[in-house]
Amino acid sequence: MQSDSGMMPAPTTNTADRMMKPATRHLVAAAVLLLSGTVHAERPAFGDTLTIGFGGMNHYADSTFRSTTDGRPPINLDMDDLGMDQRVTTIWAGVTWQFADSWGISANYATFDSDGEISADKNGNFGDIAWQVNARLESDMSLDLYIIDLHWNFINSDRTSIGAGVGVHIADFEANISATATGELNGSPITSPVDLGSETAGITAPMPNVFLRASHRFAENWVITGTAGYFSLEYDDVEGDLISARAALKWRPGGGRFGGGLGYQYVSIDVTDAGGSKTETYDIQMYGPILFLEIGF
Prior knowledge:
It contains one helix and 15 strands. By secondary structure, it is mainly beta. The protein is elongated and about 75 Å long. The protein starts with 12 loop residues before the first helix and ends with a strand.
């Protein structure tokens, strides 16, 4: 920001000191609050310093993607177009380290894999390959999702915590398509299948996010938690949006170390990379319930 000092007299040393001392006190007070949390803060949820969870997800994936070489029309492909199963049961793992009363860091991992085989009902292309109606398409898709969050609870009691944080969602996505012409090629009949080639495309997209979070221990053995975040970015030839939400109901019999719970996760990542000779777009949504066990220390 441009200074206005040329338009008004500079403050005297005494005036500057009077201006700086309250500001310094406010900065020190803010730093103390950030580092120590609220007075008499308690560790949230079941009071763990370290929590480790492992379980299974029955997730539904709704993914649309395209890889368009310059000079070709952009063709969106979705999992249904390729005959892929959109609902898959897979693994989930997570860990949370509450390294101070009001500060914690967590990491989660989820994965999704699917494949399909179908006769194309429309012309299409993907990267350097193209096909016509009735071509045989074989495809597979994989998605690994890593979530890392740093949070601070600005409200913290023995039952309830409310906070905010910053983090990153890393989506490692890859799709492979092989095409074979059958019956007809370029308007002429063919007597045997013709291999049209295969193409693999993908992206590793680290998407930052900001989020709000809350947890409430509504009974001795029960805790409910929730997190919701969003971020949008545009940098050079890459632009993207992220929406994420997670919720869980946790149970610890007898208030002990071992327990379990039921959760739900929703993640939407939309990324376009227009750099190079191809424009790649990935619109990925993954959501569904999680059943897990956990142990706290």
